[in-house]
Amino acid sequence: MTSRRNVLAAITWAAACLAVAGARPRPAGASGRVRAGSVGKPWLVFYTEKAPLEAFEPYGLLVLDSEYHPPLRPLAERGKVLLGYISLGEVEKHRAWYAKVRGWGILKDENPNWKGSYYVDIRDARWTGLVIEELIPSMLRKGFDGLFFDTLDNPPFLEESAPLKWKGATEAAVRLIKAIRRHYPDIPIMLNRAYTLLPMVERDIDMALGESVYADYDFAKKINRLVEQRLYREQVKLLQDAKRRRPELRIMTLDYWNPDDAEGIKRIYREQRANGFEPYVATVALDRIVPEPK
Length: 294
Prior knowledge:
Layout: H1 7-17, E1 43-46, E2 61-64, H2 72-77, E3 81-87, E4 90-92, H3 98-104, E5 107-110, E6 117-120, H4 125-142, E7 146-150, H5 154-161, H6 169-183, E8 189-192, H7 198-201, E9 207-211, E10 215-218, E11 223-226, H8 229-245, E12 250-256, H9 262-274, E13 278-282
Parallel strand pairs: 1-2, 2-3, 3-7, 7-8, 8-9, 9-12, 12-13
Antiparallel strand pairs: 4-6, 5-6, 10-11
Helix pairs in contact: 1-8, 5-6
């Protein structure tokens, strides 16, 4: 998932941007690309292959890792909408395409929050070509219905941090999303955070995800914690504004909490549903399914 770096900077950029404002066909749903059967059902994010198929039964939409995932065909036969994870702003060492991209010289600094994951120069046309012509087709051939875009909060953050070095990175991220949509007009797409980009791409995606909106994990202290109230309210506003501008856009939230604290998890679900969002609460490792407490 996202590196959860300097979210306040991303929100500041997003507020400023508000002033500027062939895939397999799928049956139409609320957005025209997501099957109607998944709407109104719980959803989840799960990044390993270690779970029995019956554990997925309550869920309509599953965000899964593109490599480490349970068998896709049985899930598809049960009517699940399957989104495959793809990191568009970074490349991790364990990915099969790491060596190729490293050889092109377009990998930059290592993300200080995620060892072994390197910022990619999203402005380079070779990266766009690789994503559109190789990575996405490979995922669709595996059986994924659509895509989950991660780490696209990087380009605005990097451009703000080093304007000369990363000039044009935000615009390049927008172009990449739009190019993917042109090439794959019928697949469902979920965008993680990247609040800066939302006003410019919200019509090119079907779902916007707010990660760590209400509750997060403190890696230094190794505890779950509530997000600072001002930051929480700012994220809620950005997501609600996107929903007002495009009512058919589904707004999802992913918050992290101790799975043994049922009352704490219930509180998060209540809060996010009151905001008009579709919540899921999990552990930060995203390696176990955490059912909503009754």
